[in-house]
Each structure stands twice: as structure tokens, then as C-alpha cells.
């Protein structure tokens, strides 16, 4: 069984993912408040989600060339500096075009942070990379629980949501100072003798001249599908809780945090489980848990039962992205920086298309029935995971160990 070692570099990358999670999971509760300030419709306010998708695409395009120029560690710190700059603008500026531009800048920089952390942990931990990535995303979700609480406290105190942006900048500065004080340096590139992750493609199937293999592109589509599940839940769950479970608007908005709580707990436990289970098999199990949680949430006629379903749903969703990205980067081999950049495009596709599609259906049949699109996404993810497992097993030169790693 692979062993995960928590060195100073690993803890630093976890903290950097947490900094991104503080903004990401605080962004959803801010959008309705910003809509009230700007006096726009829900559809216009939703353009801020589109700005996130645009930023994801830009961040994906910029990461690989930036990492070649300043190193992976330099790319992560550049991304965090961009997040601080964008968050400052988002908190100070009020016109709609300005806030849209600020969100696009934040998302562009945030994708650099996500991509950099993923490739650093993959190169550093080899066979234990799925566990490390799961724990990094647990840190992201953990800070995601904190952000809405800070926003709520600030709003209740009469300060509004904007001071919370200063908290984000302060946290980034604090982590940078701690890294300097403890002399923690992120690696420039992959270590020359880095161990290959357990799901790595065999030598004959490794990328040639930077080309990405078929298994990577299956994982890429899988990330787009699972990203669609997460963003649709973030944007539309509160409407279903109000219309079907009879919750008030305030309670429904707060209850969305149940998903993030489930994701946090799932990633804490998943880091240990990922050391024992093959990633593809564990991903199938996680998708099954997501489906069970969704079923409980969707049929629940009362609020507390629906919230319980959201927690279970979050437990399953917790492992979707960490496992998919670990497989994608493993099969990419020496093209890991390029693969990480392209993975941001999958998130952009999911965030940019799925919420619009679900909203269009909801306009016709209501949000509760429209949410039946999500089991369709889950089923598609299951099929893609099975196909990915076969691609890992049947690639030319695959050994018995690789078949065990595929797990399906």
C-alpha cells in the first residue's frame, strides 16, 4: 500500500487550495447579494458564473506556458497574486461590467492555482497522489464551509459582503508570509526520479512529444460531466428546497452548505481510502453514493430529510474531481503541465453549459423536475469511468499491476 508523507511542501499546497476554496464556495452566496446591489435580474447576475467559465478557459491556456517560464511553484504564487488582485477589484468596484471582469480575472488566476497544486502533488507523491489530491480538495472544501459563515456574520453586522474580500486577501498574504518564514519552496518542475502514480500508463502508451493519450481525454470528458453536477447543485439546489421541501428562502440558502460539509467529510475520509482502493473503482463507488444521495434529496417532502440527502450527495461528490484529475495527470506522463492546463477547459465547459441547460429546462417544467438531469449526468459519469478503466487495462504494454490499478 502506498504511503502518503506530509512534508512542508504538501502542507503548503493544501493551504493554497484552501485559499482558493474560500473564494470559490463563498462566491455562490455573494451573487444574490450582488444582484440586489446592482438591481439586475437573476439571469444577468448569472453572468458572473459565465465569467467563471471564461476565466477557467483562460487559466487553462496560460498555465502550461507560465509553468515553463517561472516553474510550477512560481505559477501557483502568480495565480494567488492574481486572485488577490481580482478579489480586491471585486470588493471595491460596483458596476456590472467591472464585477464581471474581476470575476473572470479571479477565475483565470484560480485555475492556475488548481493546476499547479495538482501537478506538484502528482509529481511529489507518485502512487499516493490520489490521496494527496483528495486531501488538498478537502482543504478547499473546509475553507468553503468557513466562507459562507464569515459572509453571513458580516452581513448580519451590517457591513455587507464586501469586507469578506479583504479577509481573502489577508489570508493569501498570511500564507505567503508563513511560507517565507518557514522557508518552504515549491518545486520548479517535476523531480527527475519521481515515482509514477499507480494509474500511470505503461511506457508504450505514454505521451509522445507531448501528445496526450486516449485515456486522458476520457478522463477530461469525465471531469466536464462531474463538474456539471457540482455547479448545477451550487446554483439550483436552494430553488428545489424552497419549491419542493417547503423551506424558507433563508433556510434554503444556508442548507446548500450541507453539500460542502459532505464534500469536506468525504475528502477527509477519501484521502485514506484512496491509498487502499484503485482510483477507477473508488470513483464508481463515489458515483453510486452520489446517486443515492440525490434520490433521497429529490424525493424528500420535508427540509431535514432533503438536507440529509445533500450531505450524502456531498460525500459522493467529494471524490469525483480529485480521482479524475489524478488519473488524468498520471496517464499524461511527461506532459503533466499541458494536461493540467487542458483540464481547466473541462471545468469551463461544465460550468458554462450545464447551468444554462438546467435553467432552460427549469423555465419549462420547474426546478424540481429539471433536476432529473443530474441522474443523467451521474449515469454518463459511470459509463465514462467504466470506459476509462478499460482504456487503462487494454493500453498496449499494460501489465497486471496496471490492470489492478484500473480497478474496473
Automatic annotation (TrEMBL):
Transmembrane segments: 12-31, 43-63, 75-93, 99-123, 135-155, 161-182, 217-237, 249-270, 282-300, 306-332, 344-362, 368-386
Predominant cellular place of this UniProt entry's protein: membrane
Domain Major facilitator superfamily (MFS) profile stretches: 1-393
Record-level GO cellular component terms: plasma membrane
Membrane topology term: Multi-pass membrane protein
Molecular function GO labels: transmembrane transporter activity
Keyword list, A-Z: Membrane, Transmembrane, Transmembrane helix, Transport
Location within or outside the cell: Cell membrane
SUPFAM superfamilies found in the cross-reference section: MFS general substrate transporter
Coiled coil: none
Signal peptide range: none
Family designation: Belongs to the major facilitator superfamily.
Protein name: Fucose permease
Organism: Micromonospora mirobrigensis
Amino acid at each position: 500500500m502506498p504511503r502518503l508523507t506530509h512534508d512542508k511542501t504538501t502542507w503548503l499546497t493544501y493551504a493554497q487550495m484552501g485559499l482558493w476554496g474560500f473564494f470559490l464556495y463563498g462566491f455562490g452566496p455573494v451573487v444574490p447579494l450582488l444582484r440586489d446591489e446592482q438591481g439586475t435580474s437573476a439571469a444577468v447576475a448569472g453572468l458572473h458564473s459565465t465569467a467563471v467559465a471564461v476565466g477557467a478557459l483562460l487559466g487553462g491556456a496560460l498555465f502550461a506556458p507560465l509553468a515553463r517560464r517561472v516553474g510550477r511553484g512560481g505559477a501557483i504564487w502568480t495565480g494567488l497574486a492574481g486572485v488577490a488582485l481580482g478579489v480586491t477589484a471585486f470588493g471595491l468596484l460596483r458596476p456590472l461590467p467591472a464585477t464581471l471582469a474581476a470575476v473572470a480575472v479571479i477565475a483565470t488566476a484560480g485555475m492556475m492555482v488548481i493546476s499547479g497544486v495538482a501537478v506538484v502533488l502528482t509529481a511529489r507523491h507518485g502512487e499516493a497522489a490520489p490521496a494527496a489530491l483528495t486531501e488538498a480538495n478537502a482543504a478547499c472544501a473546509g475553507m468553503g464551509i468557513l466562507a459562507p459563515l464569515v459572509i453571513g456574520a458580516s452581513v448580519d453586522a451590517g457591513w455587507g459582503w464586501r469586507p469578506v474580500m479583504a479577509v481573502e486577501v489577508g489570508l493569501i498574504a498570511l500564507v505567503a508570509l508563513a511560507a517565507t518564514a518557514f522557508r518552504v519552496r515549491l518545486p520548479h518542475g517535476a523531480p527527475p526520479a519521481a515515482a509514477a502514480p499507480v494509474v500511470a500508463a505503461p511506457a508504450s502508451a505514454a505521451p509522445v512529444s507531448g501528445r496526450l493519450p486516449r485515456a486522458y481525454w476520457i478522463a477530461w470528458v469525465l471531469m466536464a460531466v462531474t463538474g456539471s453536477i457540482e455547479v448545477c447543485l451550487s446554483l439550483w439546489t436552494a430553488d428545489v428546497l424552497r419549491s419542493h421541501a417547503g423551506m424558507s428562502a433563508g433556510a434554503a440558502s444556508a442548507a446548500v452548505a450541507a453539500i460542502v460539509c459532505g464534500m469536506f467529510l468525504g475528502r477527509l475520509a477519501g484521502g485514506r481510502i484512496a491509498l487502499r482502493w484503485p482510483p477507477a473503482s473508488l470513483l464508481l463507488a463515489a458515483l453510486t453514493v452520489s446517486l443515492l444521495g440525490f434520490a433521497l434529496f429529490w424525493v424528500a417532502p420535508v427540509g431535514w430529510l432533503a438536507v440529509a440527502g445533500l450531505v450524502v450527495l456531498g460525500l459522493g461528490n467529494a471524490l469525483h474531481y480529485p480521482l479524475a484529475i489524478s488519473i488524468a495527470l498520471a496517464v499524461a506522463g511527461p506532459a503533466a503541465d499541458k494536461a493540467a492546463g487542458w483540464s481547466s477547459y473541462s471545468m469551463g465547459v461544465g460550468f458554462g453549459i450545464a447551468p444554462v441547460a438546467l435553467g432552460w429546462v427549469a423555465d419549462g417544467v420547474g426546478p424540481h423536475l429539471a433536476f432529473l438531469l443530474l441522474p443523467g449526468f451521474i449515469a454518463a459519469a459511470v459509463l465514462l469511468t467504466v470506459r476509462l478503466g478499460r482504456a487503462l487495462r487494454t493500453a498496449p504494454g499494460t501489465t497486471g499491476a496496471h490492470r489492478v490499478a484500473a480497478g474496473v
